[in-house]
Design goal:
Structural class: mainly alpha
Strand content: under 5%
Distance between the termini: 50 Å
Number of strands: 0
Helix content: over 70%
Largest sheet: none
């Protein structure tokens, strides 16, 4: 029951970051297609700011004691317990929500950066970082923590499952951030222009042209 409650909270909070990601994807794609790298960077910064603001509001609401300690009442009776461990569902959810809030901080960042990668037509890069973070790190770590394998007893059960997602989301965010920081935006504009037939391979002055045209996209 506690896992289901925490997953529902995660899904609800994730919708805010998901919507921002779609908006950033559209703005970055439009900016790169128009040959304006500064506008693409502005869209990224704006999206990150909106995402962090949304997270701050959600954090303030969910971390209120009256919310965190009574959230389980929306899904289960007051006296519900874990049938295997006898732990109170209220206690598990109260701890789980704290972990979910931390996880959504990183999840929001990585989702906005995923939108940037999609806007630039580099979905394969996002696929690679997702596989590394969730398949190679999250699943094994969740198994070890939740089921106390290899002597890892710091977060057994439900907390272990969600703690693993925190680590995976943090790694995913860092991987995506590294890719974005290493991006040559002028080269991206050329690549997109060539792929769409806007420019030709013989256009030797393309780099200077797109650099000089990068102005006032949001004005």
């Amino acid at each position: 029951i506690a896992t289901t409650i925490c997953l529902n909270v995660t899904g609800l909070v994730f919708m805010f970051a998901s919507g921002t990601s779609v908006a950033v994807c559209a703005r970055v794609g439009s900016a790169l297609g128009a040959g304006r790298s500064k506008s693409a960077k502005l869209a990224i910064c704006s999206g990150m700011g909106v995402c962090l603001l949304q997270w701050a509001v959600v954090c303030i609401v969910l971390m209120q004691g009256v919310v965190r300690n009574n959230l389980h009442l929306l899904f289960a009776p007051p006296s519900s317990t874990n049938p295997k461990t006898g732990q109170s569902v209220q206690a598990l959810v109260s701890v789980g929500v704290v972990i979910v809030v931390v996880q959504q901080f990183f999840d929001g960042i990585k989702e906005v950066l995923n939108g940037v990668l999609r806007g630039g037509g580099r979905q394969f890069v996002g696929l690679g970082t997702s596989v590394m973070a969730y398949f190679m790190i999250c699943i094994p770590l969740a198994w070890c923590l939740a089921f106390q394998k290899f002597g890892l007893t710091i977060a057994p059960g439900v907390p272990g499952l969600f703690l693993a997602t925190v680590v995976a989301s943090a790694v995913h965010s860092l991987l995506n951030l590294a890719v974005i920081l290493a991006t040559d935006w002028e080269a991206e504009i050329m690549r997109i222009g060539l792929a769409n037939g806007v420019y030709s391979d013989e256009d030797e002055e393309l780099h200077d042209t797109v650099s000089e045209s990068d102005h006032g996209y949001y004005s």
